[in-house]
Amino acid sequence: FRNRGIPLEGIRYPITPTGMHYLLTHFDVPDVDASKWQLKVIGLVSNNLSLSLDNLKRLPKVTMPVTMECAGNGRARLNPRPISQPWLLEAIGTSEWGGTPLKGVLEHAGINENAQELLFTGRDEGLQGGEVQLYQRSLTVAEATRDEVLLAYEMNGAPLEPQHGYPLRLIVPSWYGMTSVKWLDSIEAIPRHFDGYQMDKTYRYTVTADKPGEPVTTIKVRSLMVPPGIPEFLTRTRLVADGETTIKGRAWAGRQSISKVEFSDDDGTTWHEADLEAKVGEFAWTGWSYQWQAKPGKHFLHVRATDSDGDVQPVAQPWTLLGMGNNMTQRVEVIVR
Ligand SMILES: Nc1nc2c(c(=O)[nH]1)N[C@H]1C(S)=C(S)[C@@H](COP(=O)(O)O)O[C@H]1N2
Ligand SMILES: [Mo]
To answer: What's the 72 CA to ligand 2 centre distance in angstroms?
Structure first.
């Protein structure tokens, strides 16, 4: 399995240690020589730009914690299971990303009025769905010029590691991870919707193969707990001592904030409100905790969050063909001794 996930106990850290952040690379990590690399800004622009890493580092710098989640997180629990990355719950992480706002670079380039989208092309190439392709995704001009969108060259205070997009990647806070294109090579202003593979053939809420479904965009409300107690090696069932136990975790929701987190120890029948901490950042997760009175026996623990729009996590996952945007509650089997 070449795409690692966060060990769930790693959600205890407000900023995920770099080596614990999940990873998703469709093709191979490309071989990029940063001393020769330049970011090209082309297409419907007044000035074509070609920027070296040093040029980008001289532009205004912003650092911010951003919670990123893969749109396929939770896919492995679907039945039938879509054939793609078999994530359980671990395609999540929060990093402190450093770079320059994309908006400023686009202002230097001067986006023409007839541009509709910006096309972001990575250096990595492969074959997917019968098409040889570079990894490419687009955003509308309005989404791409939001203040928080970054051209990032740092992760947790260090240069990006090769597998996370060195030398430069896009960071689009609130959107599922596929939008944050790694190994950025060019940004092209285009007059129409980009209908490439990663836009129109996948990352859709497809239910039946004949209808594409809505595109996958921002992250849905979700929460996770650090599994309490100690694990059984083979099954991961948890063993917990009886009495009071503090259950801790994190909750997040794209552009919304978290308004409520609830805990259940009876497989989602009754719910108890948890205490919320301050968010780690405007675009990062919120910590929560709950004092649980653990009584001897077997329990199925759940956690569910509600966002500021009133959206709440389902206890059972609606099925989709590609297994995108799953946000059903985490279920943890615990035996209290
Ligand atoms: N160029 C490129 N960018 C990419 C990808 C990729 O395969 N190639 N994977 C995307 C997906 S699906 C996700 S979830 C995030 C993962 O970022 P990470 O590996 O740094 O956690 O990168 C996105 N950007
Ligand atoms: Mo992803």
So the answer is: 6
